[in-house]
Protein backbone atom coordinates (compact mmCIF):
# COMPACT_ATOMS: atom_id res chain seq x y z
CA UNK A 1 0.00 0.00 0.00
CA UNK A 2 1.42 3.36 -1.03
CA UNK A 3 1.63 6.40 1.27
CA UNK A 4 2.72 9.85 0.11
CA UNK A 5 4.36 12.03 2.78
CA UNK A 6 4.51 15.72 1.91
CA UNK A 7 7.63 16.66 3.88
CA UNK A 8 11.40 17.01 3.64
CA UNK A 9 13.44 13.85 4.25
CA UNK A 10 15.22 13.75 7.58
CA UNK A 11 18.84 14.86 7.46
CA UNK A 12 20.81 11.87 6.10
CA UNK A 13 23.50 12.29 8.74
CA UNK A 14 21.00 11.40 11.48
CA UNK A 15 19.95 8.11 9.90
CA UNK A 16 16.92 6.97 7.91
CA UNK A 17 13.73 9.02 8.01
CA UNK A 18 11.63 7.71 10.96
CA UNK A 19 8.35 7.88 9.00
CA UNK A 20 9.74 5.77 6.15
CA UNK A 21 11.21 3.34 8.68
CA UNK A 22 8.07 2.98 10.81
CA UNK A 23 5.67 2.66 7.88
CA UNK A 24 8.00 0.10 6.29
CA UNK A 25 7.60 -2.14 9.35
CA UNK A 26 3.89 -2.35 8.51
CA UNK A 27 4.60 -2.98 4.80
CA UNK A 28 3.57 0.47 3.64
CA UNK A 29 5.53 1.82 0.68
CA UNK A 30 6.13 5.42 1.76
CA UNK A 31 7.54 8.21 -0.42
CA UNK A 32 8.69 11.67 0.69
CA UNK A 33 8.20 14.76 -1.47
CA UNK A 34 9.67 18.06 -0.18
CA UNK A 35 7.05 20.81 -0.23
CA UNK A 36 8.74 23.87 1.24
CA UNK A 37 11.92 25.89 0.81
CA UNK A 38 13.23 28.16 3.54
CA UNK A 39 15.33 31.29 3.36
CA UNK A 40 16.95 32.54 6.55
CA UNK A 41 16.88 36.31 7.09
CA UNK A 42 17.89 38.90 9.72
CA UNK A 43 20.49 36.57 11.21
CA UNK A 44 22.78 39.40 12.37
CA UNK A 45 19.83 41.00 14.18
CA UNK A 46 18.95 37.63 15.69
CA UNK A 47 22.42 37.09 17.10
CA UNK A 48 22.54 40.68 18.38
CA UNK A 49 19.42 39.95 20.44
CA UNK A 50 20.76 36.57 21.57
CA UNK A 51 23.90 38.42 22.73
CA UNK A 52 21.84 40.32 25.34
CA UNK A 53 20.00 37.72 27.43
CA UNK A 54 19.77 40.27 30.24
CA UNK A 55 17.20 42.16 28.16
CA UNK A 56 14.76 39.26 27.94
CA UNK A 57 12.71 37.03 30.22
CA UNK A 58 13.17 33.92 28.08
CA UNK A 59 12.80 32.39 24.62
CA UNK A 60 9.90 30.93 22.63
CA UNK A 61 10.28 28.49 19.71
CA UNK A 62 7.28 27.19 17.77
CA UNK A 63 9.23 25.92 14.75
CA UNK A 64 12.34 23.79 14.17
CA UNK A 65 13.33 26.30 11.46
CA UNK A 66 13.84 29.01 14.06
CA UNK A 67 16.41 26.76 15.76
CA UNK A 68 18.04 26.09 12.41
CA UNK A 69 18.43 29.86 12.01
CA UNK A 70 20.32 29.96 15.31
CA UNK A 71 22.49 27.04 14.20
CA UNK A 72 23.39 28.97 11.04
CA UNK A 73 24.38 31.93 13.24
CA UNK A 74 26.57 29.70 15.38
CA UNK A 75 28.58 28.40 12.43
CA UNK A 76 30.79 31.49 12.70
CA UNK A 77 33.68 30.73 15.05
CA UNK A 78 33.47 33.99 17.02
CA UNK A 79 29.74 33.51 17.62
CA UNK A 80 30.19 29.86 18.60
CA UNK A 81 32.79 30.89 21.17
CA UNK A 82 30.59 33.64 22.59
CA UNK A 83 27.68 31.21 22.85
CA UNK A 84 29.74 28.50 24.54
CA UNK A 85 31.63 30.78 26.95
CA UNK A 86 28.75 32.75 28.43
CA UNK A 87 25.57 33.25 26.41
CA UNK A 88 24.36 29.66 26.68
CA UNK A 89 24.71 29.66 30.46
CA UNK A 90 22.90 33.00 30.78
CA UNK A 91 19.97 31.84 28.63
CA UNK A 92 19.79 28.64 30.67
CA UNK A 93 18.80 30.68 33.72
CA UNK A 94 15.63 31.65 31.83
CA UNK A 95 12.71 29.58 30.49
CA UNK A 96 12.92 28.29 26.92
CA UNK A 97 9.38 27.50 25.76
CA UNK A 98 8.84 25.08 22.86
CA UNK A 99 5.76 23.76 21.08
CA UNK A 100 6.71 20.10 20.46
CA UNK A 101 9.26 17.33 20.78
CA UNK A 102 11.04 18.01 17.46
CA UNK A 103 11.66 21.62 18.47
CA UNK A 104 12.63 20.55 21.98
CA UNK A 105 15.33 18.19 20.70
CA UNK A 106 16.85 21.00 18.59
CA UNK A 107 16.84 23.31 21.62
CA UNK A 108 18.79 20.64 23.51
CA UNK A 109 21.28 20.42 20.64
CA UNK A 110 22.29 24.07 21.18
CA UNK A 111 22.69 23.41 24.90
CA UNK A 112 19.45 24.83 26.29
CA UNK A 113 16.74 23.18 28.39
CA UNK A 114 13.25 23.24 26.83
CA UNK A 115 9.92 23.25 28.59
CA UNK A 116 6.32 23.05 27.39
CA UNK A 117 7.07 20.49 24.65
CA UNK A 118 3.92 18.50 25.51
CA UNK A 119 1.75 21.46 24.49
CA UNK A 120 1.59 20.29 20.88
CA UNK A 121 0.26 23.53 19.38
CA UNK A 122 0.56 27.31 19.75
CA UNK A 123 -2.74 27.69 21.62
CA UNK A 124 -1.77 25.27 24.38
CA UNK A 125 1.76 26.63 24.57
CA UNK A 126 0.35 30.14 25.01
CA UNK A 127 -1.78 28.88 27.92
CA UNK A 128 1.28 27.19 29.43
CA UNK A 129 3.34 30.38 29.15
CA UNK A 130 0.54 32.48 30.66
CA UNK A 131 0.41 30.15 33.67
CA UNK A 132 4.10 30.85 34.35
CA UNK A 133 4.76 34.43 33.30
CA UNK A 134 3.67 37.77 34.75
CA UNK A 135 2.84 40.98 32.94
CA UNK A 136 5.69 42.67 34.80
CA UNK A 137 8.25 40.25 33.30
CA UNK A 138 10.84 41.21 30.71
CA UNK A 139 9.82 40.50 27.09
CA UNK A 140 10.07 36.95 25.78
CA UNK A 141 12.14 36.72 22.57
CA UNK A 142 10.26 34.90 19.80
CA UNK A 143 12.29 34.00 16.65
CA UNK A 144 9.70 32.97 14.06
CA UNK A 145 8.78 32.64 10.39
CA UNK A 146 7.14 35.20 8.14
CA UNK A 147 3.99 33.02 7.98
CA UNK A 148 3.60 32.57 11.72
CA UNK A 149 0.04 32.35 13.03
CA UNK A 150 -1.03 35.12 15.37
CA UNK A 151 -2.56 32.84 18.00
CA UNK A 152 0.35 32.87 20.46
CA UNK A 153 1.17 36.61 20.17
CA UNK A 154 -2.53 37.47 20.53
CA UNK A 155 -3.03 35.38 23.68
CA UNK A 156 0.11 36.77 25.34
CA UNK A 157 -0.84 40.32 24.40
CA UNK A 158 -4.33 39.86 25.91
CA UNK A 159 -2.72 38.66 29.14
CA UNK A 160 -0.29 41.60 29.15
CA UNK A 161 2.79 39.37 28.78
CA UNK A 162 5.44 41.25 26.75
CA UNK A 163 6.69 39.57 23.59
CA UNK A 164 9.35 40.59 21.06
CA UNK A 165 9.08 38.79 17.72
CA UNK A 166 11.84 38.65 15.12
CA UNK A 167 11.26 37.07 11.69
CA UNK A 168 14.23 34.80 10.93
CA UNK A 169 13.00 32.78 7.94
CA UNK A 170 10.66 32.98 4.96
CA UNK A 171 8.70 30.04 3.56
CA UNK A 172 8.22 29.46 -0.16
CA UNK A 173 7.05 26.60 -2.35
CA UNK A 174 9.78 24.08 -3.22
CA UNK A 175 11.04 24.76 -6.74
CA UNK A 176 10.40 21.18 -7.94
CA UNK A 177 7.14 20.50 -6.06
CA UNK A 178 4.71 20.31 -8.99
CA UNK A 179 7.20 18.36 -11.08
CA UNK A 180 7.75 15.87 -8.22
CA UNK A 181 4.02 15.39 -7.65
CA UNK A 182 3.33 14.86 -11.37
CA UNK A 183 6.20 12.36 -11.59
CA UNK A 184 4.96 10.46 -8.53
CA UNK A 185 1.38 10.13 -9.81
CA UNK A 186 2.47 9.11 -13.31
CA UNK A 187 4.95 6.48 -12.06
CA UNK A 188 3.37 5.23 -8.81
CA UNK A 189 -0.31 5.85 -9.48
CA UNK A 190 -2.87 7.02 -6.91
CA UNK A 191 -1.60 6.54 -3.31
CA UNK A 192 -3.82 5.02 -0.64
CA UNK A 193 -3.01 7.85 1.77
CA UNK A 194 -1.50 11.33 1.64
CA UNK A 195 -0.12 13.05 4.75
CA UNK A 196 0.19 16.83 5.13
CA UNK A 197 2.73 18.20 7.62
CA UNK A 198 1.97 21.94 7.54
CA UNK A 199 -0.73 24.44 6.54
CA UNK A 200 1.66 25.66 3.81
CA UNK A 201 1.81 22.10 2.47
CA UNK A 202 -1.98 22.09 2.13
CA UNK A 203 -1.89 25.47 0.41
CA UNK A 204 0.83 24.52 -2.08
CA UNK A 205 -0.19 20.90 -2.84
CA UNK A 206 -3.90 20.27 -2.56
CA UNK A 207 -5.06 21.87 -5.79
CA UNK A 208 -2.39 20.07 -7.81
CA UNK A 209 -3.25 16.75 -6.12
CA UNK A 210 -6.90 17.27 -7.02
CA UNK A 211 -5.97 17.69 -10.70
CA UNK A 212 -3.68 14.66 -10.71
CA UNK A 213 -6.18 12.41 -8.89
CA UNK A 214 -9.27 13.38 -10.85
CA UNK A 215 -12.29 11.24 -9.90
CA UNK A 216 -10.07 8.98 -7.77
CA UNK A 217 -9.51 11.67 -5.11
CA UNK A 218 -12.40 10.25 -3.04
CA UNK A 219 -10.44 6.98 -2.75
CA UNK A 220 -7.50 8.68 -1.02
CA UNK A 221 -7.32 8.94 2.76
CA UNK A 222 -5.89 12.29 3.85
CA UNK A 223 -4.10 12.76 7.17
CA UNK A 224 -2.67 15.78 9.00
CA UNK A 225 0.10 16.12 11.56
CA UNK A 226 -1.34 18.35 14.29
CA UNK A 227 -4.49 20.44 14.71
CA UNK A 228 -3.19 23.49 12.81
CA UNK A 229 -2.60 21.45 9.65
CA UNK A 230 -5.94 19.68 10.15
CA UNK A 231 -7.66 23.06 10.31
CA UNK A 232 -6.01 24.10 7.02
CA UNK A 233 -7.24 20.87 5.40
Automatic annotation (TrEMBL):
Enzyme kind, highest EC tier: lyase
Q: What catalytic activity does the UniProt entry give for this protein?
A: hydroxymethylbilane = uroporphyrinogen III + H2O
One GO BP on record is:
uroporphyrinogen III biosynthetic process
Matching entries from Pfam families are given as: HEM4
Q: Which InterPro entries match?
A: 4pyrrol_syn_uPrphyn_synt_sf, 4pyrrol_synth_uPrphyn_synth, UROS/Hem4
Entry keyword set: Heme biosynthesis, Lyase, Porphyrin biosynthesis
User: Does Zinc count among this protein's keywords?
Assistant: no
Cellular component annotations (GO), alphabetically ordered: cytosol
Q: Which GO terms describe its molecular function?
A: uroporphyrinogen-III synthase activity
Residue ranges of domain Tetrapyrrole biosynthesis uroporphyrinogen III synthase in the record? 21-232
Give yes or no: UniProt keyword Lipid biosynthesis: no
Q: In which pathway does it act?
A: Porphyrin-containing compound metabolism; protoporphyrin-IX biosynthesis; coproporphyrinogen-III from 5-aminolevulinate: step 3/4
What EC number(s) does its UniProt record assign? 4.2.1.75
What is the protein's known function?
A: Catalyzes cyclization of the linear tetrapyrrole, hydroxymethylbilane, to the macrocyclic uroporphyrinogen III, the branch point for the various sub-pathways leading to the wide diversity of porphyrins. Porphyrins act as cofactors for a multitude of enzymes that perform a variety of processes within the cell such as methionine synthesis (vitamin B12) or oxygen transport (heme).
Q: Which family does it belong to?
A: Belongs to the uroporphyrinogen-III synthase family.
Q: What is this protein called?
A: Uroporphyrinogen-III synthase
Give the species.
Nestor notabilis
Amino acid sequence: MKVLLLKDPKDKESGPDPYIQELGLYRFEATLIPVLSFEFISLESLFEKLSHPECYGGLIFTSPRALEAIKVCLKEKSKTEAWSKSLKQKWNTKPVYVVGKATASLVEEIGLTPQGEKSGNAEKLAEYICSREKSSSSALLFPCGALKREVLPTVLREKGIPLESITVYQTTQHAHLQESLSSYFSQQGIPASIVFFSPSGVKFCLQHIQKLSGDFINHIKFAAIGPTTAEAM
